[in-house]
Design a protein that fits this description.
alpha+beta, 7-stranded mixed beta sheet
């Protein structure tokens, strides 16, 4: 069984219990408002089969996974496997039906007393069992749906990357998890299981899957040079790949004069958080600042989320080193963690963040991080309130289950999910009012 951790990227998400997780793969997708069930239907990835890594003779393969063929797993064992995932990892939250380990144990007893004749019947039993939780985000994925999710492409060249635990050099490795047959990367010679060593001459060992995906993206019909090591022990090769998918910027900006005309404000709208958002936001901030912007308005209205890692990286642009961006909470101690800023801020000028009732998921992480650390005031409407973490677990027959395993907690220890974030102002305040508010916020934080 493999667990694909969504919503917490290059943290990466803390490991789940060992009796459930054989390998954790960070894919960094946000289950935003748009990703309501069925989740797989929202991901427009190829349904082509995954390629097998090329075998290399006379090589000590040290990173093999446990393999269990479908024939070796009975229908009853498959249903029990799904039951076990929920038993160990599921986080009940307000709004779902009452749940306890004791009541869930009764489900297992019912399974053990049943004879499941077909694989189709086993899948139906898993669906019914998960539906009984009352959680719309915890659900079953057929083998075809799971295969699509595993190949979700955020690189623009038809591959999905996974992070492999550090080797002898202490650096995390990046390998190709899924590849779209006849896609740009596959046509150029890249295969599933290849290790990515560099992108356009930049050494990527130790970098996150999100960061490298950003390097791979670019305009359609441009080229990217990727150095790969084929398989686990194969030869190293530099491969030139033509990008065929259009990477669209989500960042739009302009410079405006204030009503009294004595200062300029940089207005920036982010439509979604994708792999280009941080890079394009940095460009916008620098251009607006060089053009005379004395403060900024960051518009996150109708931004339903996207890649949570992108939101985290954007929050870091405004926060002081060591400040908390977001924390996670769950049943297991391993899921409880906090993400902090490691660098000094790019921008220190006053910031206004505009939100509404369609500001959700990754957008709420950004808004709460900037607000709770006294870097921005929030203006508009209460946000949507989507703050749950899901992991995707692969079962032994190639199907999978998506399970809610945790939730987000803001730096001021507020639960986002179901509550949203209350803004400070209904309408845009003046610059002096913003400065006074942030100054008072900082004063209240002082020990």
């Amino acid at each position: 069984m493999r667990a694909f951790s969504f919503l917490l990227p290059s943290l990466p998400l803390p490991p789940l219990p060992q009796n459930i997780v054989l390998k954790t793969i960070t894919v960094s997708l946000s289950l935003s408002l748009l990703a309501s069930p069925p989740f797989a239907s929202q991901l427009e990835a190829s349904a082509a089969e995954l390629l097998k890594p090329a075998s290399v003779e006379l090589c000590d393969e040290t990173e093999k996974e446990e393999e269990v063929s479908e024939e070796r797993v009975t229908n009853e064992e498959l249903v029990e496997e799904a039951w076990e995932v929920v038993s160990e990892a599921f986080l009940p939250y307000s709004g779902v039906r009452p749940w306890s380990p004791e009541s869930w144990l009764q489900k297992k007893e019912d399974i053990q007393q049943s004879r499941v004749q077909t694989r189709s019947r086993a899948h139906d039993m898993i669906r019914k069992m998960l539906a009984s939780l009352g959680d719309p985000y915890t659900r079953f994925l057929s083998p075809a749906e799971f295969a699509k999710m595993a190949k979700y492409d955020m690189t623009g060249i038809g591959v999905n990357l996974k992070e492999v635990p550090a080797g002898a050099d202490g650096l995390v490795k990046l390998k190709v998890l899924g590849i779209i047959l006849d896609g740009p990367a596959h046509s150029a010679g890249i295969r599933q299981g290849d290790e990515i060593l560099s992108v356009n001459g930049i050494d990527v060992r130790g970098k996150s899957a999100f960061d490298v995906s950003s390097l791979l993206q670019g305009p359609k019909e441009t080229f990217v040079t990727i150095q790969v090591k084929h398989g686990n022990c194969g030869p190293v090769e530099s491969i030139k790949v033509e990008r065929q998918l259009i990477a669209k910027t989500p960042v739009f900006y302009r410079l405006e004069k204030t009503e009294n005309g004595d200062s300029s404000v940089g207005y920036i709208r982010i439509k979604e958080f994708n792999a280009l958002a941080k890079k394009d936001l940095v460009i916008a901030l620098k251009r607006l600042q060089n053009s005379g912007a004395s403060y900024f308005v960051l518009d996150l209205r109708d931004n339903l989320g996207g890649l949570v890692q992108s939101g985290i990286e954007i929050a870091k642009l405004f926060l002081d080193k060591g400040e908390t961006i977001i924390s996670t909470a769950g049943r297991e101690p391993q899921v409880q963690n906090s993400i902090h800023t490691e660098t000094e801020p790019l921008i220190k000028t006053p910031l206004i963040v505009m939100v509404n009732n369609r500001t959700a998921s990754a957008s709420e992480i950004v808004a709460s991080a900037l607000h709770d650390n006294c870097k921005a005031v929030l203006v508009g409407q209460r946000t949507f309130g989507k703050g749950l973490i899901q992991s995707v677990f692969e079962l032994h027959d190639g199907s999978g289950v998506v399970v809610t395993i945790g939730k987000y907690i803001t730096p001021k220890e507020m639960d986002i999910n179901g509550n949203g974030i209350e803004p400070d102002f209904d309408k845009l305040p003046g610059l002096n009012e913003v400065k006074d508010y942030l100054s008072q916020c900082q004063f209240q934080r002082t020990p």
